[in-house]
Design brief:
Blueprint lengths: L2 E9 L3 H12 L4 E5 L8 H5 L1 H17 L4 H31 L4 E12 L2 E6 L5 E11 L3 E3 L13 E2 L13 E5 L3 H13 L2 E5 L11 H13 L2 E4 L3 E8 L2 E7 L5 E6 L1 E4 L3 E3 L32 E3 L10 H15 L15 E3 L5 E5 L2 H6 L4 E7 L4 H5 L6 E7 L5 E7 L3 H13 L5 H5 L10 H7 L3
């Protein structure tokens, strides 16, 4: 069997892996990148997550402002949005491929990789099924995650059940979308499809909505999404899914044990994600994973085998593209002889949930700060207090800041407001710089802007 030799092998075309490949290739190292699907050049974000979903978010917002009335008008707008999403994804996918493929030190291989030794993998080519081996000094796992599918009777047999990837390929706007799970992904799709004009119902087995958020923030999100026409059923345990002609019936049991049935044209399963590691046969070489298949790594992203690292979603860290990029920085620092940057030095990571309006947060919630023993000051402000969001006709939301009463440092901030996904970065930068909260209270922002609401929010802290 033929064996190819490289300095570094990267399995998977995710953000962290492809950025590392480009870095090493530009330094003259010979790098192989193995990706089993041509549809995943560029990784999860470009193809099935951040980019396509945010493209649909923008299109949905435009649909709302254009006020399509009939289902046919809504369907036409939705189809164009799907086409635009596909154009964007195709463009970025090709750009990602070209960036590596044109580098003379990088070889992109379409195939399925599996370990046979700590420094060796077997590769089965996607097109020809030919088999060969790759030997490399360093191996990086960058295979990402995939939707986790629950065991529900009838789910696998249904023609109308989708996950977060396949739903975005649906060219017909469902009149009624049923979402199983109120995860961040589930809420984003619920918001998107409601804005396009679909009836949307969310079924959540747990009785707590947005459990990671403070109860006042969760209540504000819940009420706003209800006002937008999204129906929620908490304590809803799905019992069965059964196709009926062009629709699907979803039976669920409520908190009192009563069974109800909903009928819709599409069902989205949004109950979490699992690591894509099963086909790698990591157990053969001693790479340990947890119960969900995520690779166990140390603070430098090294697995239990010294020459094998894991970057991006597959290592069980926060599942954000910018975390994958920071994973690249951690490994780059090690390879350059620094080694100072690690997951321990990663602090104050902001995130946003792209519902309408977006929910963004950095740092601790009020409940977390209290549990950790801080003496805190809390400020809350309705998003409508900001002139800019009033001008944008998007006044819904709630803003909240948590400050250490002893040190005056910002412990956390949650912004449920239009453009919060931009403003939260300003708060994160202030936290990184270890600034007192008064800096944001007294900073001069442009007017009218959403950012200037930070003057008012932090001005409430005495």
């Amino acid at each position: 069997m033929q064996t190819l030799h490289f300095d570094t092998l990267i399995i998977g075309f995710g953000k962290g892996g492809r950025t590392l490949a480009a870095f090493l290739g530009n330094k003259g190292q010979n790098v192989a990148v193995v990706e089993k699907s041509k549809e995943m050049y560029g990784g999860t974000c470009i193809n099935i997550a951040c980019i396509p979903t945010k493209s649909l978010v923008l299109s949905a917002e435009h649909a709302t402002s254009h006020h399509p009335n009939t289902y046919e008008e809504k369907q036409t707008y939705y189809r164009k949005a799907i086409e635009e999403k596909q154009r964007l994804v195709t463009t970025l996918r090709q750009k990602s491929y070209d960036k590596l493929h044109t580098n003379p030190h990088i070889r992109v291989i379409d195939g399925l990789a599996s370990f046979i030794a700590p420094h060796e993998v077997q590769v089965v080519l996607s097109d020809t099924q030919d088999v060969f081996q790759i030997r490399a000094e360093k191996i990086i796992i960058s295979t990402g995650t995939e939707p986790s599918i629950p065991q529900i009777p009838g789910l696998e047999q249904s023609r109308h059940v989708y996950n977060s990837t396949t739903l975005m390929e649906l060219k017909q706007l469902p009149r009624h979308l049923i979402v199983i799970g109120s995860s961040y992904v589930g809420l984003e799709f619920a918001s998107i499809y409601r804005a396009f004009g679909a009836e949307v119902t969310v079924l959540e087995q747990q009785g707590v909505f947005l459990p990671a958020q403070d109860r006042d923030i969760a209540a504000a999100v819940y009420q706003t999404m209800q006002n937008q026409g999204i129906t929620f059923h908490l304590h809803a345990k799905v019992q069965q899914i059964q196709d009926e002609a062009n629709q699907t019936a979803v039976a669920f049991m409520d908190e009192q044990g009563q069974t109800h049935t909903l009928v819709g044209e599409a069902v989205l399963v949004a109950t979490g994600r699992a690591a894509v590691t099963a086909e790698l046969h990591l157990e053969k070489v001693g790479v340990e994973t947890n119960e969900r298949g995520f690779v166990k790594v140390d603070e430098y992203l090294r697995s239990t085998v010294p020459n094998i690292w894991a970057v991006g979603d597959v290592n069980g860290g926060p599942q954000f593209t910018y975390i994958s990029l920071d994973d690249f920085r951690i490994i780059r620092d090690q390879l350059n002889g620094g080694g100072k940057h690690s997951t321990r030095t990663r602090q104050h990571v902001p995130y946003s949930i792209f519902i309408s309006p977006p929910l963004s947060r950095v740092g601790l919630s009020e409940a977390e700060a209290i549990r950790q023993g801080y003496e805190i000051k809390v400020a809350k402000l309705p998003a409508a207090a900001n002139t800019r969001v009033q001008m944008m006709r998007e006044p819904a939301g709630l803003l909240k800041a948590i400050v250490d009463a002893r040190t005056q440092k910002i412990l956390g901030c949650t912004l449920y407001s239009a453009e919060s996904n931009e403003v939260i970065n300003t708060v994160a930068m202030a936290m990184h710089a270890d600034m007192d909260y008064q800096v944001l209270r007294d900073n001069i922002f442009t007017h009218p802007s959403v950012s200037e609401v930070l003057n008012d929010l932090f001005g409430l802290i005495s």
